[in-house]
Structures are given as structure tokens and as C-alpha cells.
Amino acid sequence: MVSTEPRPDHAATVGAPDDAGAAPGSRTRTGAAVAIVALAVALPLRELFRHQGAPMEEGFMLTFPEMVLHGQVPNRDFLHLYGPGSLWVLAGAYKVFGVSLATERTVGLLQHLGLVFGLFTLVLPWGRRLATSCALVAVLITLFPVGLAAMAWNGAVALAVGGLVAGLGALRHADERWPHRGAAPASTRRLAIAGLLAGLALLYRPDLVVAVALGFGALAWNVDRRLGRRRLRPLLAGAVVGVAPYLVHAAMAGPGHALRGMVLDPVFKLRGGRSLPVPPSLDTLDGALHKVARLVLAPWPLPHLDEPLQVFAWFFALVGAALLVAGMGVAAIRRDPTSARAQTLLCVGLFGLGLLPQALQRPDPTHLGWVSAVVIGFLPVAAYEALRRPLRSLAPGTRALVAGGLVLAALIAFVPFFTARSYVELTRQSFGKDAQRASVRNDGRTFWLGRGPAIGELQAAVDDLDRMAAPEDRVIVGPADLRYTHYSDAYLYFLLPDQRPGTAYVEMDPGVANAGDSGLADELRRADWFVASHIWDQWDEDNDSKDAGSDEPNRVVRDRYCLVEDYGDFVLLYRRCR
């Protein structure tokens, strides 16, 4: 078989030509590479669709869009800390396909696929083998922090990566024209799409602005140098169109509510109760959710670090990788600003650097995974370039396999519990091996949880509410001690479609829901039912979540609610009786 990879004498610099897409049969080989990545996604997929979800995070991504369908507005009618884009998309999906866990997770899967195959496309200038390696690294990292939950962060990053694909494609095909008379150059349309996707990413997560500014700023700089300043117009126009729906949202919610919900609350109220130590602790997991609700997985047979040490090593590897890729991009663009590889390294490297604040504010496995999907996912490219001289005797295709293999081996060696072990275990469970899950169900709706003693109590509470509560009754779900709003079982709202949330704090956060001026006590005065939970009583983090908030909501429960049922150790059901 004749290799379609560039020979060593043609690959002396970053940006050397790559004929991976030019040779006969290359489409077939690229299709085979895509099939390998698709198979890697497919193996654990059956279990991912029925695996335990994050009770609050996936719960509110099920509940919020349904509230939007019922006419409620984020930031005005309920707390939502991000942009409205993901809720609008999910609401549309629910309208067409029905409100279900399967619909929500299908949207989440599409977001993951957008990121994985976007990364694959970005790396194609280096050849199929390296692109496949990067995509496989991304699969190991991105599928497991919150499973297939359609979180706004995952959607925003996938959109931004798609924007970089379109923008860098415009640079590589600057002279191509669409095949009909009078059409603008293809690069113009690609740049408009790039800007649109960047704007939509911000519509999902406005806090992605640093990463978008760095990554797309580098893209704009390259466009200016390569194509001229006039070609920046479609890029900017697309971005304006992408963020313009914020005007609609501000008009619906009110500018003050929108500003408070998306800027003031997350930046000034929430950080103190959600931040974690930097760097992570060496001897304990700092994130309470990973201590309280840890996955039940089979023992890992290979030598490994203790779990806290894995998080510690992961944190420093992530920071180092972000700096390395960005630095290599700057160096490469200085050597050859016309190189497609150098332009890609610079844009992706700076974009990854801009993602780091998400990991720095809360370096737990979930947030490290969210950032690593791009940064570590692109690390095989950096390894490939770093190994160019030491392994110059190897063909580029072989060097790509070595680079990708080194990064995959590092993940397995240093952070297996959050990558390889999860992948292996969920793949086993997809084929019927020892699934560790249970569910709570009602009215044709299902939410999957891990096995535990609280499951029966939760199901009994849902059954009783479904039987006793009237349609449109207002239900509040929260901790038994409302001075500490660490977390909530928000998925219970999804399981009670005939009732409605009686609080704006479907998502409960310390420093926000338990603040003296939150209005939670007034909401309890108007609500009809209160589901009190002791499940998260052991929440323990080294931040302001330890501080007690207002006791007024507890007094309202004592004074105005009657206990309907104490189900055991975890769940109580109250009805307002005064």
C-alpha cells in the first residue's frame, strides 16, 4: 500500500504540506478513520443513555426547557446562570420529540460528537492518524464528566470548535468559489459561519468570552494578514448575528434580571460557595459531589495513583498542556505565518488557554474534563511536533501513532479513574455486565440514578405526590435544612409534569438560594408542597458553602407546613397546611 502521509524530507517544519486528502482512495481512508472514532463512541453508548445522571445539573437541563415551553423566562422566572441558547435549543427539541431523558441525552450526544469530530477536522492537516488519535483522546475525556447530559458548556465549546473549523477552512481554501455564477468566494461564507458559531457559543455560555476572544482573535489576525481587512466583515457580521438574540432575551426577562442572572449572581454571589482549592489537595477529593455520589466501578487492574493524586496530576498536566500548545502556536506562526498547521496551532492553543479559568475556579474532575477535552485532546499534535527531530527517522504516519499513543498512555497511567476506567466499565455495562443503576419513574418519565438506599424513598415520595397533589400545585424540592443550599434533586421536577416548580431556585446554590434576600421564604409561603432531602447533608467543601444562610425558610416550614410522610433516613414530604 502506498502511504498518503508526507515523507520526512517534506515535513521539516510546522506547516509542511500534507497530502492526506489528495491521494486516490483518501476519502475511503478518511471514512475509515471516522468509523474508528464513531465505534469508540458507540461502544459505551447504550449504557450512557441509561446511566446515572447528575441529580441537579441534568435535572435542571430537563426542567428549565420545559418551563420555557410553558412560557417562563430564564433570569426573570427562574435562576439560570448562563445564556439562554441551550435552553431554547432543548425546548425546541422537547417540542418536536417530547420531554424525555432520551431527547435530552440525544442533544447531549450531538454536542459531544460536534466537539470530537470538530477536533478531528482541525487536526486533519497533520494527517488522518494524528486526527484519529486526537479524537480518541477527546472521546476518553469528554463522554464521562456528566455523561450525555446536554450541558450548556459542552454545547458552547462544540459550537466554538465548529467555528474554528469553518474559519481555518476559509484560510486554507481562500481562492475557492461556490459553483454558481456571481457567488462570493467560499471563504467569505465560511468566515460568516465561523462568526455565527462563535456568537452562538456565547449565547450558550457568556463566560466563554475569554476563550472566544483569544481563539477567534487569532483567527481574525490571520484573516487580516492573509485575505485582507475587508474579509473580516463576514466574520464580525456572523458573530453579531449569533449574539443578537441576547437583545430578545433582555427584552423578555428585563435588562436588570438578565444582568443579575448571567453576570452578578455567578460572579459575585456564587464563586465563594463553589470555588475549590488551587491546586487540588493531595490527600482528599475537594469536590463534595465526587465524594458523596461517586460512581461504583470495578477495581482497576493496572498500577495507579490514589484518586486525589490523579486529580492533582491532571490539574498540572492541563495547565502545562494549555501553555505548551499555545506557546507552540506562537512559535510556529512566527516561523511561517502562511502555514495551515501553524494557524491551527495558534488558534486552538489560544482558545484552550482561554478555557483555563473554568478549571482554575473549580478544579474537580468535571471541570477539568470540560477543559481537557480541547486542551489535552489537541496534545498529540504538540507531541507530534516536539518529536519531529528526535524521531526524524520515522515516517510521519508512524510518528503520529507514537505521539497519540504517548498521550493515551499518559491518560491511562495518571488519570485512569476519570478516563479509561469509566470507558471500560461503561462499555462492559453496555453489554449487560453488572450495571450499577436504578431509576425513579413517574408518568412515563424516567431518571436514572446509582443504586443506593435513598432510591426507594424518592420513588415513594414521587408516587405520593403524583397521587395527592392537584394539577398546577407548586412543589419545592430542597435540602431539609434550608440554611445550606449546597445542591438539590432537581430531576424530581421533571418527574412531576402535572405540578410546577414553586421556586426560582430549581438549581440551588450556596450564597444565592440561601441568601437573606433570595425570596425563598416567600416562595415557601406560596407553595403547596415541600420535598425535604437529607441526601446531601454530608456535603463538605473548603469554601463558603459551609456558612449558614438565612433561617427564615426553615421557620416558614415549621410554622406553615405539616409533615405528610417521613420515608426513612433521606426524604420527607410536607404539605402547606396554614
SS class: alpha/beta
Number of distinct beta strands: 7
Write out the strand line-up for the largest beta sheet, numbering strands in chain order: 4-3-5-7-6
Low-confidence stretches: 1-13, 15-24
Name its key features.
disordered N terminus, single chain, 578 residues, alpha/beta
Write up what this structure looks like.
α14 (307-335) packs antiparallel against α15. It contains 23 helices and seven strands. With 578 residues, the chain is an alpha/beta fold. The chain has helices at residues 26-42, 45-48, 57-69, 85-97, 101-123, 128-142, 152-172, 186-204, 209-227, 232-243, 245-253, 255-274, 288-292, 307-335, 340-361, 365-375, 379-386, 396-414, 420-430, 454-468, 491-494, 520-526, 552-560, and strands spanning 438-442, 445-449, 474-479, 500-501, 529-533, 561-566, 571-576. The protein has a domain at 438-576. A five-stranded mixed beta sheet has the order 4-3-5-7-6. A two-stranded antiparallel ribbon has the order 1-2. A hairpin with a 2-residue loop joins β1 (438-442) and β2 (445-449). Helix content is 56%, strand content 6%. The model is unreliable at 1-13 and 15-24 (pLDDT under 50).
Task: Give the gist of this structure.
The chain is an alpha/beta fold and 578 residues long. The chain has helices spanning 26-42, 45-48, 57-69, 85-97, 101-123, 128-142, 152-172, 186-204, 209-227, 232-243, 245-253, 255-274, 288-292, 307-335, 340-361, 365-375, 379-386, 396-414, 420-430, 454-468, 491-494, 520-526, 552-560, and strands at residues 438-442, 445-449, 474-479, 500-501, 529-533, 561-566, 571-576.
